[in-house]
TrEMBL record:
Protein keywords: Transferase, Tricarboxylic acid cycle
GO biological process: carbohydrate metabolic process; tricarboxylic acid cycle
Single GO MF descriptor: citrate synthase activity
Catalytic activity: oxaloacetate + acetyl-CoA + H2O = citrate + CoA + H(+)
Tagged with keyword Transferase: yes
Protein source organism: Marinitoga hydrogenitolerans (strain DSM 16785 / JCM 12826 / AT1271)
Name of the molecule in the record: Citrate synthase
A Pfam family hit: Citrate_synt
Pathway: Carbohydrate metabolism; tricarboxylic acid cycle
Annotated CDD domains: citrate_synt_like_1
Family membership: Belongs to the citrate synthase family.
Length: 372
């Protein structure tokens, strides 16, 4: 007898775990990490300290911050064999495809008995190196090895460009904004992998593959490409109204939970506005015009800018190419992914939902094939 199930499309409104890592108030546009509002953390903290908070559920003391900072700094280098393999990759490979593949390769070189936390720190330390090395290899530039003396965020920019740009503190804060967001698609997918007790490299390969999609982390790259296509503020209206009349999704807008302005987008916009007043920040005026139209046209559906709408303008300001934007998202969200994997496993149960069958029944092979 068929059990009566109702399908929750896209799992809307379905809770799959109890978690103390983050809280989202979608109506008020609030994001809280382990009890701290995101505005408080970006104002006062930095990447290493907030990563510790997400992993260990409390802010670190001096010794603990030294521990996490030195652990992350010491584990930045990649095995030589992997660097050689990266040099053989096709130069037009997408950075998210390279990241997904190299994380899988790292799994072949990892110590089998290391704990999930050790692997989480190891991957958090190495992902920036993978991204920066791919940028250098793809552009036929010499590799710039990591510097242990630099902070996590500064070291990434140094490995990319050989120097630390002005306002690099904003890049560090942007990573804090992307650390964690509850059961988003890539965190959910990787928690499913974690629930089978698979290894951390498989868990994170799942996450990276899921984040790559344009409806999720891949949107930030699409947003900047949209700005490049629009070219000038004068072109915004015809461009956006064409998308609207074609019923196309406008990248960087909408959210399953936030039914008001995404607090992260609000913070990024504020920083970019300050920067814009001081320095030439490309595309900001175009973004403001796009936002004005979309918010007006989609008021009933409560569609507002999400984190991906403004993040690319900041990354572009740091000369990071748009095809690398989603890898920046991944280099932060590795902390949330690994925190959820460790938390879920404390009360693990394998994910195994149902599907409702609507296909044929009672078919007979010989009758269908018309044979005796
Ligand atoms: C991230 O979950 C997270 O927290 C994700 C994230 C994180 O930190 O992990 O916040 C990061 O992924 C942000 C989202 C980045 N993606 C985009 O910017 C792509 C564009 N956005 C949409 O595809 C969409 O808004 C989603 C994917 C973000 C949310 O999808 P939902 O909740 O399934 O919403 P939906 O597609 O069911 O839309 C509801 C209605 C529809 O209209 P109707 O069919 O009811 O008439 O709103 C419309 C949609 O057409 N709509 C949009 C729109 N987003 C929703 N219309 C135009 N442009 C959009 N961007």
């Amino acid at each position: 007898m068929d059990i009566d199930f109702d399908v929750k499309h896209g799992l809307e409104g379905v809770a799959v775990a109890i978690s103390s890592i983050s809280y989202i108030d979608g109506e008020k546009g609030k994001l809280v990490y382990r009890g701290f509002e995101i505005e408080d953390l970006v104002e006062n903290s930095h990447f290493e300290e907030t990563a510790y908070l997400i992993w260990f559920s409390s802010l670190p003391n001096e010794n603990e911050i030294d521990f996490i900072t030195s652990m992350l700094a010491k584990k930045r280098t990649l095995p030589k064999k992997i660097i050689e393999m990266m040099k053989s990759f096709p130069k037009n490979a997408h950075p998210m495809g390279v990241l997904r593949s190299v994380v899988s390769l790292l799994g072949m070189y990892s110590k089998k008995d290391s704990s999930t936390l050790e692997n989480a720190i190891n991957l958090t330390a190495k992902i920036p190196t993978i991204i920066a090395y791919w940028y250098r290899i793809k552009n036929n530039l010499p590799l710039i090895p990591p510097k242990e003396s630099l902070k996590h965020s500064e070291n990434f920019l140094y490995m990319m460009f050989g120097e630390i740009p002005k306002h690099s503190d904003l890049f560090d804060k942007a990573l804090i904004l992307h650390l964690e967001q509850g059961m988003n698609a890539s965190t959910f997918a990787s928690t499913v992998t974690a629930s089978t007790l698979s290894d951390i490299y498989s868990i994170i390969t799942t996450a990276i593959g899921t984040l790559k999609g344009p409806l999720h982390g891949g949107a930030n790259e699409k947003v900047l490409n949209m700005f490049k296509e629009i070219k000038s503020v004068e072109n915004v209206e015809p461009y956006i109204y064409t998308l609207i009349s074609n019923k196309e999704k406008i990248m960087g807008f909408g959210h399953r939970i936030y039914k008001t302005y995404d607090p992260r987008a609000k913070i990024l916009k504020h920083w970019i506005k300050d920067l814009f007043l001081k320095d030439n920040v490309e595309y900001f005026e175009i973004a403001l015009k796009v936002e004005e139209i979309v918010i007006k046209e989609f008021k009933e559906k409560k569609i507002f800018p999400n984190v991906d709408f403004y993040s690319g303008i900041l990354y572009n300001y740091f000369n990071i190419p748009s095809e690398f934007f989603t890898t920046i998202f991944a280099m932060a969200r590795i902390v949330g992914w690994t925190a959820h994997a460790m938390e879920y496993r404390k009360n693990n149960r394998i994910f195994r939902p149902r599907s409702i069958y609507n296909g044929p029944k009672g078919l007979k092979y010989k009758e269908v094939k018309g044979v005796e």
